[in-house]
């Protein structure tokens, strides 16, 4: 596997300490209050964002966060000492769930690896720290797929919360001179202690590909986080600008604020089992049933205002399924009484995937001294790199993470046959044949078919747009590149394990089940293969190794793509989609679960259509917007206290 493959397929992690008042951390039922106003199940990126905002806005209301994991003393960054570039994992600090989806027959039964954060801070404490946003067209597609009433979830509706959710630190003039960094400060403007910055270090051979992309007609973008995202991008890293340590929700939305919040409790090492409506779905907020992972004790927690599910795309749907909220047929097969037939729960699973598209060698590699291999061959260089990371400010290779540059290319700019691909998507959506690519249990469900059609048409419109990226390829160094399929058409499922409902769920990615995905993969690979023939690459004597001269026909390239496929780039989404109920949706525009009272979902499971980027910054923005919605509702109804503060935060 290539170096960037290790980055995006792993959940690496680095030393960063929590300084948490232990009185707020709860580990057993006897430490809890008799009831809470708000109960949030999931102490990850979005959940902690909501908890922070609610405890600040309503100081007289109590908030409990229930988290499966624990507070970790260490939350290692993507690439921190003592790892080397070729081995970027910190297994001793690995607070994440590991899933192996069932084999996908359309990609030669590949299964892959999927991870999710299992610690306070969730995946923001374990991810690759690639802190980009999607383009405006990604978020506009949410509103487009959902239809009337969902307009607030377009780019214009989310952009203020992107700005609010992060503090961007511009680089120094010296770094700008050295690395050419560009940005637009108007894309930012928040004061939240989620830090984003550009690293002080770059590998010297990064410039080879930068110039190669320009040879291929791509243009550097001044800022790729302001809605337009086409071309060559600098991407911020979620790390502190001075220490280069990971910045994540467990710090910024818990440890750094909880000392002054007597109304904020955190229950760790407990699994959210289900929600219970003893008096019917409209009776108010449900009770939350949880299980201690320390002694297996099961008990209920009472919420008087709302329950917020923020357990992520892979666990939120299973909590709902255990609650009897989900596809009736599956619930019956699992022996769970049906409380609400909501077929979208655990459906619509999709993720970014893609192959190692091209690998090459240099016959005239140039004279670069700052390259990753030196960490393995020069002990003095490695020692200095480790020492540099501990300095203040930090310096050297370990401040880089693994990458902060990428290309984002639209289908019209990379594929001569782009219109034929778009037309094919529209045709299968409109003639109904696309339903045959859905999981079997949904092929005759009119709501699921209607929702899938809406998603496909929204994706087709994006793929036809020369400003909306279809391909992402990140890089920092090296001689191999991956091709991220940003808008997959294939859909899978997340289901309870029928043998043990409390075990980790079963993921069926169904990668490549919609064959048009391979048309797009093929276009991506053909575009990236051109790089070895550019003037810049020829200057270094580049020779393609893979796919190789023997792989030329489309049929052979598709086989190569299947052989090289990475099933997941760790961005699962869509399993509790933000869509109307008659389109297979799970939550409405206020993120309330359809046909229920006092129950919302606030995590990446709401994404009906995945974005053209990594999910962390979007998870923060969704959390911020959700908190604003909740605060507004409870303030307007007169049920909230601390109203002046609530209004000041919006």
UniProtKB/TrEMBL annotation:
State the UniProt keywords alphabetically: FAD, Flavoprotein, Signal
Q: Which GO terms describe its molecular function?
A: flavin adenine dinucleotide binding; oxidoreductase activity, acting on CH-OH group of donors
Q: Which cofactor does it need?
A: FAD
Family annotation (PROSITE patterns): GMC_OXRED_2
- In this chain, FAD is annotated as bound at 45-46
Q: Name one Pfam family in it.
A: GMC_oxred_N
Catalytic residues (UniProt) = 571, 614
Similarity annotation: Belongs to the GMC oxidoreductase family.
Query: Which protein are we looking at?
Result: GMC oxidoreductase
Species for this entry? Podospora australis
Tell me the lineage of the source organism: Eukaryota, Fungi, Dikarya, Ascomycota, Pezizomycotina
